[in-house]
Amino acid sequence: MAVDVERASGFRYSQRAYLVQVFRRGAGLFLFDPPPIGDFTALQDAIGDAEWVLHAASQDLPSLRELGLRPAKIFDTELAARLLGHERVGLGAVVEDTLGISLAKAHSASDWSTRPLPQAWLEYAALDVEHLVDVRDKLADELAEQGKTEFAAQEFLAVLEREPKPVREEPWRRLSGLHTVRGRRALAVARALWTAREEFAQEQDVAPGRLVPDRALVAAVLADPASKSALAAVKDFTGRASRSQLDRWWAAIEAGRAADPLPLERGGGGDSLPPPRAWSDRNPEADARLKAARPVVEQRAQELGMPTENLLTPDLLRRVAWSPPEPLTAASVGDALETLGARRWQIEQTAQPIADAFVGSVQEPATASETAS
Predict the structure, then answer these.
(1) By three-state DSSP, how is residue 12 classified?
(2) Which residues are registered as beta bridge partners of 6?
């Protein structure tokens, strides 16, 4: 069962589905309009336990689950193409590479909340699933030929079972251009403006950036206006709601200036690690481990014919390099990687090389010292 979803990203605040496309051999191709349908129980029952074929499943699964559509098993054509080492992994490229069919991508960034949907858009949406089952079969054969069927099965299951990312503690810090804002009071104003825009965007179901762009919010902070009229006079404070909601933005500025406590100059960062460029000063041993292990993992990925990040994400390698297990063995490295979320096949391919590299990074400086003496 090939399934795809069209959202209105960049136009709407929500990530809800505004079109669901389904294709099944022997049944045909169907387009479903979620807003008027509402309840998709009948479709879920009709699909049953059939495998769902999706392209970049992690992007579509949240919107599908919001409709009550939950696959029991998936095949992700984008992820399969990555594991196989395809140079291009977009839907159009994968369809062309496997079937020799070219798909037009003219409406990929369209506002799918538009009603009625133009016929050309519907035809475009239908093509997204019409060939996907055939693509799946071709990729499955390639996976078998390369001995990667089990790799893919574990990856597909991980995507299906992955929990939603937790909400960031300070999401306002992702405001583009915030690095130009100096001072905790100014940061408080930026936070208040971001929050006011977020609340209004959610209320209107409009993408925040379409109301007031990030750069306009930052311009208002940097201008430090003394009055509402001064805010209105800020040239770079633009956007469809910058003037019509002037009272809202001025109230946010005043609230930010009166805020207590003030935000820190830098975010807490949660459990994030320092950037690798700072490791040599802050944790030289970890820096040595990372520099020793990274090329080893890259080499193994090259041997397997896949991107390094699909063999093992850089964040997992950094974390186990920063805080290595004791004693330092392939088994202990494997356990650490598993705790961090690595799949069994990834551990089998990388744990021993990483452990060897870590041990070598400790021994090499001592050998160099002995040679010098």
Answers:
(1) strand
(2) 19
* Distance separating alpha carbons of residues 83 and 145, to the nearest angstrom: 12
Residue closest to 177 by CA, chosen among 243, 221, 231? 221
Please identify which residue in the block is written with the tokens 């830098």.
266
Please give the C-alpha separations between residue 297 and each of 85, 293, 326, 353, in angstroms, as whole numbers: 16, 6, 21, 7
What gap in Å lies between CA 373 and CA 365, rounded to an integer?
Answer: 13
Rounded CA gap, 179 and 175, in Å?
Answer: 9
Cα–Cα dist 359/289, whole Å = 8
Residues 6+ apart with CB under 8 A from 328: 355, 358, 359
Q: Kind and range of the H or E element at 146? A: none
Q: Which residues contact 190 (CB under 8 A, 6 or more apart)?
A: 172, 175, 178, 181, 217, 218, 221, 256
CA-CA distance, 270 to 162, in Å (whole number)?
A: 20
Q: Is 178 helix (H, G, I), strand (E, B) or coil?
A: helix
Q: In this structure, are residues 89 and 81 in contact, taking their beta carbons and an 8 Å threshold?
A: yes
Question: What tokens appear for 372 in the block?
Answer: 């010098």
Q: Give me 299's structure tokens.
A: 């080499």
CB distance 91 to 114 below 8 Å: no
Tens-level pLDDT at each residue, the chain (373 residues): 999 999 998 999 999 999 999 999 999 999 999 999 999 999 999 999 999 999 999 999 999 999 999 999 999 999 999 999 999 999 999 999 999 999 877 777 899 999 999 999 999 999 999 999 999 999 999 999 999 999 999 999 999 999 888 888 899 999 999 999 999 999 999 999 999 999 999 999 999 999 999 999 999 999 999 999 999 999 999 999 999 999 999 999 999 999 999 999 987 655 688 999 999 999 999 999 999 999 999 999 999 999 999 999 999 999 999 999 999 999 999 999 999 999 999 999 999 999 999 999 876 544 444 444 3
Contact 99, 77 (CB under 8 A): no
Q: Which residues have C-beta within 8 Å of that of residue 170, sequence separation ≥ 6?
A: 191, 263, 267, 268
List the beta bridge partners of residue 23. Answer: 2, 29
Cα–Cα dist 186/157, whole Å: 45
